[in-house]
Amino acid sequence: MEYTVRFIDEHCEVRVSAGSTLLAARIASGLEADAPCGGRGTCGKCRCEYRGAGEVAWREALMCQTPVAGDVEVRAAGKGGDLRVLTDAEAIPGSWNPVVRPTHLNVPPCPRGESSADWTRLAGALEAAGVPVTEANPRLCASLGKLLAAQKGDVWAVTAGGRVLEVSAAEPELYMAAFDLGTTSIAGYLIHVNSRRVAVADGARNPQARYGGDVISRADYALQNGVEDLSTCARTAIDEMLGRMCGRAGVPRERVFAVSLAGNTAMHHLFLGIAPDSLVKAPYNPTLSQPLTLRTSEWGIDANPEALLFMLPVIGGFVGADTVACLLSGDWLRREKLTLMIDIGTNGELVLGNRHRRVACSTAAGPAFEGAKITCGMRGADGAIDHAWLQDGALRWHVIGEGPARGICGSGLVDIVAALLESGDMDGTGRLAAGDRFDIGDTGVYLTQKDVREVQLAKAAMAAGLRLMAGRMGVGLDDIEEVDIAGAFGNYIDPDSACAIGLIPAELRRRIRPVGNAAGAGAKLALTDANAWAEADTLARTTEFLELATLPEFQDEFVEQLNFEEEDED
């Protein structure tokens, strides 16, 4: 038996089988669904109001825990706003040496009395122009002879990765697209090769959030239900964003000849349809780490039929291609300063080192700072408290969108905890002075004692990871010359607050600088500089991976870092 579920805010309805949950119905309808706990009913983020056919009163419930037993109407208990996605749209990093390039050729005719293949002469002309061809493309040969004859050999060839992707009579219009596939959000960039610029940048939520807010939840879902849902979800999101960007630029998809993709190891594996079981079981290693050059047509991305997909390599464990992209954009193969790079997203990655040596690790610090495990937590969207401070002894705050507060995002959470520590409303052990809850004015938004403990767990993991990396490198914290904070969280976080709670050691305060969406910048660089694509492999292979879970000293260091620290000046 089937029933109709109508989502009244979105003017959408869907038919589902009896017993399906409201969350499953929302997913089936194609609407955005947010379930950080993976549908276990523990996070409370899919709260809604619903009523059956003919009923007047609305009932409040969790969509993931409410089965459909008849026709029903559903509305959100609190409507979400647009997620802030950091894209850094304007910049084209590095030198201009794109992986896709047009070459003007004069292909000589076959001499009378000889039998020189059209493709051989085309490849020879490219070789003479300094563009080596490593393999033939029989799909282009169907019309090659006719084109060469009509143009008397005067043609343009589009090449990438040693392959010829197109041969045309006129100079071609070329585009490439770079994507940062994050756990929470996706950033995309459409690059116009001819004008050497980013034509369009776009950002969106990662729709995989319907299967869990963090990589572990999604890995668990994949292990129980297979990877197809998550893989299809990611590929569709990338393809839809590409279509949206092409539409905004007014160009056909067929003019996109290369796509690059960077993401953490779980996102990388799930996109490729690889079960993430090796990541969540000792020794926590990836199944595949090498850089890949694939065809977009085989991975659900509608571009030019010959377009290539460049998948950046993985370092190890949960330190993935997004970290490689960050290192690439930071020019780490030529960096002399001892640098700490921190990328706090839904997962937290750290790299310490320079061009001579680098150590990387991953910590499960992100979910709290993305709002997934915080009672009133939410992502950086309209209604989120993103900053807070003390003024005349009282807490003041700013809300994204300037409307009423609906929750707290990561940067606001760090500010609030730092302010409570400064005001004495919370002591150094994390205990709230007023009991189990601190109310943010009369907004209805509040912080619980459990929320504070989640922050402590997250910051302790980050702080412990940093100290163990420094130990592995044989350096002290004072030796670190620069701290690069990547990602949206790093862009919006107040360094003073981060140091006040011990998320970043206080002695590094004056060395902190936000570097924006470094992963997105690296994904762009992999396309706009062919040398950078080669360097990505070098960075992945030569960066040491430190698996914190296997270190016996990690637990002691983690416990040592649980308490909050007061800020010290250099």
Describe the structure.
β15 and β16 form a beta hairpin. This protein starts with a strand and ends in a 10-residue tail after the last helix. It has four domains: 2-76, Beta-grasp domain (Ubiquitin-like (UB roll), Roll), CATH 3.10.20.30; 101-168, no CATH class; 175-311, Domain of unknown function (DUF4445) (Nucleotidyltransferase, domain 5, 2-Layer Sandwich), CATH 3.30.420.480; 331-514 and 529-570, no CATH class. The strands form six sheets. The chain has a six-stranded mixed β-sheet with strand order 11-10-9-12-14-13, sandwiched between helices. It has a six-stranded mixed β-sheet with strand order 24-23-15-16-17-25, sandwiched between helices. A five-stranded mixed β-sheet has the order 2-1-5-3-4, covered by helices on one side. Helices cover 28% and strands 24% of the residues. It has helices at 22-28, 118-128, 144-151, 215-225, 228-249, 265-271, 321-329, 366-369, 410-423, 449-473, 487-492, 495-500, 518-528, 530-542, 554-560, and strands at residues 2-7, 12-17, 47-52, 59-62, 72-76, 101-106, 154-160, 163-168, 175-181, 185-192, 197-205, 256-263, 292-295, 308-311, 339-344, 348-353, 358-363, 384-391, 394-399, 407-408, 437-439, 446-448, 482-486, 512-514, 543-545. It is of the alpha/beta class and 570 residues long.
